[in-house]
Specification:
The structure is a homodimer.
Chain A: E1 6-10, H1 14-25, E2 29-33, E3 51-53, H2 55-63, H3 67-71, E4 75-77, E5 79-82, E6 90-93, E7 101-104, H4 106-119, E8 123-125, E9 129-134, E10 139-143, E11 151-154, E12 157-160, H5 167-173, E13 179-194, E14 208-213, E15 218-223, E16 229-236, H6 249-259, H7 270-276, E17 280-288, E18 291-292, E19 296-298, H8 301-304, H9 313-331, H10 335-365, H11 371-386, H12 394-399, H13 405-423, H14 428-431, H15 435-447
Parallel strand pairs in A: 1-2, 1-12, 2-8, 5-14, 12-19
Antiparallel strand pairs in A: 3-7, 4-7, 5-6, 9-10, 10-11, 13-16, 13-17, 14-15, 15-16, 18-19
Chain lengths: 455, 455
């Protein structure tokens, strides 16, 4: 019943490749353009944070039948491992028994996704930059360099999956009344490596996301299949403890020995990596509309780039594709309606996960080192176990459910208001397991309204 | 003591011309570029809202000795004249005795400012678009069209006074970590005209800003020297009462007769104007940083475009220039320091007036038609008159004082919180002049904290 369309996807990253597989499964002709060379032919590293695949990501892969294939590349992480100087390693489970997030190298996953998309019949055109796009015609103009003779090709529709600095969005931005914002954090990041032991085993506990929370800055480490860990140092660009200050090998060495004494030995190439790898910026990008007529749509980071502190960037992008697929099931060839409902449905959720991700830096870098915060988590978890119908912790709602992000944000605000009151109770440290506390939370739940904001 | 510099100003609008006068007074060589023809040689009309000059604007003109000259072009407006169907015309004073804002036609003022800048020795280069700018070198590349042979010229520094869609800012935007947002209202606007009577007098009360508040939309009219009024219709682009719906002459005529019966006869060219004049969009633009090294700085709308509902766009831009001048007095040739302090000092205030302007649409279009709101204003004004040291109404603080906008926003929020409580008092309609109410406000003032946000 559905007509086969000619569709261009700009960007061969994770979201673009997944979209190509979905579209091929629906019987469309799909060309994926990328300005970079085929990632399968090059060395990929130096400015990535390992991915943390969670439920939303897996559901999008399952629906198109590739979850099992991808799971082979992933390492289960069921807890945070929190490293505080002078204290024993502290393990904080992410969810209930059996719930976990999964560490995957971005490069490894991207290669696999392109391979799977190609197997599904997608045509990839690498090293071909989209210089311009006619939105009304869905015609794209490509070429290796700007001065090259350019090629033009008209499609039935075009998807912009070309990331935070999307060329497709750039073209849409020139319309009047296009809302757009880009907001950079004062914190940047740098990739470092903990290599495997000689026997290929991991130097740190394998099934954990390791965190060294230090307030304004933090180090994290996520496991890889080859026994190594990809580490990311998050730190302000300027100020007291900052990338700007660490401008000599001595200073870097001393900084790591002082702040990360338990791990500095495990990063043997610290100094060369620190000065070779770029210091990258972190940006939140919001825009609207995401679509143009029935011709053009933005997906993933091109529509909603977020900071990485909730591990939801890829998951949110994959969920875009799954939602598009559901709408295509309902509205078949009515692409105008599909696009309108897609942007209206996804935008409030994209805004919500942007906000949650922004807030989570504080939680990871500061609060995981705070005993009050850890007690708060214990009280919440205890209550949630007893009343799973009444309380799903915010992290679980974002990570282990497919309920809308906007709802998670609103529930999280409500729970925070309630827990603020609970934490004011005198001697809460001693009394937190008392029956009264449970009753008090139940009473507060009755009294505290839920506010879902649809901006 | 101060060295004479070669300075380029991009944009010959109100703020660019004023800056040129200030810089000439300090002994610098000043070239002002504009892509448009000299406004003095062309007919100017069709998409402007008359300006409302208030204290901040006048102070900036006085400091450079041109306030008297400009005052000749202005008409004093000491009140709002509120037109509600079936009710008598209601006059709401803007401030205390003697306080007023001043209506000036944008075109008339701009011509005068260019004339004054030229007289001060500024060189104007019209019909010369700045296509590119080298930020490190303060070199600008100009020409009539993009394909023309371009001219390049190096300056000591460059100011971007080129408005909301600034080319200079566009270049700064390409740097990493440049924060930027553009946010459009769903409301647009269209200019209309009430011509003068045959004897040159005004058809409506001359010394008022006339408002026809209708909730989602409103009409305003500001007086001109020639006896005419410049009217602006603000209305949603789409929806029930919207520009989209008014697509035939009949519909426009009926719409005006229905909603603005007391003024429709005074707009004899309603239909031709409605279909000839553009429907313009309203945008808030925020960005940071505003400067680049000691070479480039943004001023006025290029740094902070706001919606017009507080009448502060030009006033805020003029205040930028006055602040720059103060910093030049203090730091003389240290342009790096001048620029750092300028952007750090102005940014929180630009954000505050953006927020206040956004909120004021609701006040003008809806609340001025609301009896509860008018009572609230009466209570506030009565208290302010008795306790001028304790209560300056928000509108006065923005319009008739030079206290920072950020402080006005914070004071306004505090006053609103207090007045919300007062308006909850039973029978407040009867009791508002009682001694108790005054005492209650005094008590609430003690209890309500002031929160100045510096983002």
């Amino acid at each position: 019943m559905q007509e086969s369309k000619n569709i261009a996807v700009v960007g061969s990253g994770l979201v673009g490749s997944l979209l190509a597989i979905y579209l091929r499964n629906r019987g469309h002709e799909v060309d994926v353009y990328d300005r970079r060379p085929d990632i399968r032919t090059i060395e990929f590293s130096g400015r990535s944070i390992n991915l943390a695949m969670s439920l939303r990501g897996w559901l999008a892969l399952e629906e198109v039948g590739i979850a099992d294939e991808v799971k082979k590349l992933a390492i289960r992480m069921d807890k945070r491992a929190i490293h505080i100087p002078g204290k024993p390693l502290y393990f904080q489970p992410y969810g209930k028994e059996g719930e976990a997030i999964y560490s995957i190298s971005r490069g490894v996953l991207n290669k696999k996704m392109i391979e799977l998309a190609e197997k599904a019949g997608t045509r990839f055109i690498f090293e071909s930059k989209v210089w311009d796009i006619n939105l009304d015609e869905a015609t794209i103009h490509t070429g290796k360099t700007e001065n090259d003779a350019r090629e033009s090709r008209k499609y039935d529709c075009v998807f912009g999956a070309d990331g935070a600095f999307s060329r497709v969005r750039h073209k849409m931005q020139r319309q009047s009344r296009f809302n757009y914002s880009q907001e950079f954090l004062k914190t940047g990041y740098k990739e470092l490596t903990i290599p495997a032991n000689r026997d290929g085993t991991h130097k740190l506990e394998k099934h954990s996301l390791h965190i060294w929370p230090r307030g304004e800055f933090m180090l994290i480490a996520l496991p890889n299949l080859d026994g190594s860990f990809t580490c990311t140092l998050f730190m302000p660009f300027e100020g007291k403890n900052s990338f700007e200050m660490l401008d000599t090998e001595d200073k870097v060495q001393q900084f790591f020995e002082h702040h990360f004494p338990d791990v500095v030995e495990d990063i043997p190439s610290l100094l060369p990596e620190f000065f070779r790898n770029p210091t990258s910026a972190l940006v939140t990008i919001r825009c609207f509309p995401w679509t143009y007529s029935d011709k053009v749509a933005l997906v993933g980071d091109a529509a909603h780039a977020i900071v990485p502190f909730y591990g939801q960037g890829m998951n949110a992008g994959f969920e875009d594709i799954r939602m598009l697929n559901h709408l295509m099931n309902i509205h078949e060839d009515d692409w105008g309606t599909i696009f309108r409902q897609y942007e209206a449905g996804r935008k409030p959720n994209a805004d919500a996960i942007a906000e949650l991700s922004f807030r989570n830096f504080m939680e990871m870098s500061t609060k995981t080192a705070d005993t009050g915060f850890l007690l708060r988590k214990k009280i919440e978890n205890r209550f949630a176990e007893k009343h799973p119908d009444k309380w799903q912790p915010l992290y679980s709602r974002v990570t282990f459910s497919e309920r809308p992000y906007a709802e998670a944000l609103a529930e999280g605000d409500r729970q925070r208001a309630i827990m603020d009151r609970i934490m004011e109770i005198e001697d809460i440290e001693e009394r937190w397991e008392d029956e009264e506390i449970e009753q008090e939370i139940l009473a507060l739940l009755e009294d505290t309204p839920l506010k879902v904001v649809n901006r």
